[in-house]
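The aim of this short unit is practical: by the end, you should be able to scan a pair of folded records and say something sensible about each. We start with the first protein, listed as its amino acid sequence and then its structure tokens.
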Amino acid sequence: MAARVAIISIVVENPDSVKDLNHILHEYGSFIIGRMGIPYKKREISLISVVMDAPADAISAMTGKLGMLRGVSSKVLYARLQEVSDASSD
């Protein structure tokens, strides 16, 4: 299966789920290009952006696991990249 580039937005409303969330992200670490987390103390939540280059199955599996955590929600946005041909155009 072809790899996809995606950004996953994660909202953490339950701080008790952070340990499990980090475990899941570590499990898929080989696919993660970058990650940025922002604690928003005023609202007592954390916002996390994760950028991945991975097969769609891996992205779906990870976000499915995140969605099972109490107080954690996530959404995925896929990049619309053109397929790169291995054939030479010469």
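Turning to the second protein, read its sequence before its tokens, just as you did above.
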Amino acid sequence: MRVIQGDITDMNTDAIVNAANSGLLGGGGVDGAIHRRAGPALAEYCRPLAPCPTGQARITPGFGLAVRWIIHTVGPVWRGGRHDEAALLAACYTNCLHLCAPHGIRSIAFPAISTGAYGFPKRQAAEIALQACRSFLARFGTELEVLFVCFDRTQHDIYAALLD
């Protein structure tokens, strides 16, 4: 596992993860950027896959991106931490990782799910992401490269400190 600062739509991994909304049809932030770069065929492909419940994941081709796959997951909206937000966020990462082996994915890039408009505290979200990925990799013993792609320096520094 490693962290980089950059734009997830520029990744050349087998898959990237989209922090989507339940309708899977694009929006703001990471979701909007992925849909713009992938092209209109992505929205058409996503239409019958919706709705995607919070914590679950759906997979689509990469369309206009350099990746083979886009895994869409719906993170929880932060409501103070008393509405299963931590468990739902962990499920996002775990459910995305469960899609890797059946689709031949050997490298995956995650954004900081739920930390933008959904308001999840950045450090807590990073701790949950790292723990969920570590647990998955330990349990399934898979050879999978996991990247955390942070758009801003603050989020990057949080992940970097936690990975050390």
